[in-house]
Amino acid sequence: MAEKPRVAMLGLGGMGQPMATNLVRAGLPTAVWNRRPGPARKLAERGAEVADSPADAVRRADVVITMVTNADAVRSIAIDQGMLAAMAEGAIWAQMSTIGVSETERIAGLVREQRPDVVLLDAPVAGSRGPAEQRRLVVLASGPEQVRDRIAPVFDALAQRTVWGGPAGTGSRLKLVNNMLLAFLAEGIAEAMALGHSLGLDRTAVLGALQGSPLVSHWAAEKLERIGRDEYAAQYPLSLGLKDVNLALYEVDIDRFPVANSLAAQWQRAVEHGLGEDDVTVLARALQH
């Protein structure tokens, strides 16, 4: 039996913590690091090794995963805090944060210049905290084909399936497409619920009509259930949804995407009104007031 790869998980936020939990549950030797120590201590109780720094976390790792909020955080961990320099020769860096196409290309350039012996995979995920906890993520992976077998046990521990694209950067492009559709779905749910309210319909009646509809995906059905319970604790925070829409618009001629541009402006106003840390479902409440 092949030896299990050693994994270092850097970033234990809303996505990183359940992902790291699944790595440990799968029996993969896992070192963890987080800017705030609390989440790391919880994983230590499950059997993870807690590192004092990103550099310490990755020294013996075969696979390093970064799952943080934005490109600035990725660069800080990789360069300022010594992760990239400390990685073992031949190790795989699976960059799974959503940072967009241009920033992914900059990261790839850094790896080529500073650590050409490290293999970079651009591998963001489709799914939010709930699917991460349930191992129902989809990894949108891209990078060299020759490391697919090596990374498979890690991705299999995190996700229900892995979709391989082309060279690094393809995964980030697929993620922007995925999250644009997600944004439209979230907005559609919110506006449908708000329309029902404006038409004088009881919310329970609207939810009953939509649940089970062929138009409603599993993801949308879960969101509708949460709206029905007035539950807006973040699984996919509105601020991150806005970030992802803006990452997509940054790469294209926004005049060709007027609906997405309008959505981004509306979400920006909601964030400015203090709703950014709530789940995207909070739009349903916001539009009714």
From TrEMBL:
Write down what this protein is called.
3-hydroxyisobutyrate dehydrogenase
Source gene? mmsB_2
Superkingdom of the source?
A: Bacteria
- Domain 3-hydroxyisobutyrate dehydrogenase-like NAD-binding stretches: 169-286
Alphabetically ordered keywords of this record: NAD, Oxidoreductase
PROSITE patterns per record:
3_HYDROXYISOBUT_DH
TM segment ranges? none
Can you tell me which residues the record assigns to a coiled coil? none
Against Pfam families, the record matches this protein to: NAD_binding_11, NAD_binding_2
Family membership noted in the UniProt record: Belongs to the HIBADH-related family.
Q: Give start and end of each 6-phosphogluconate dehydrogenase NADP-binding domain.
A: 7-165
Q: Which organism is it from?
A: Plantactinospora endophytica
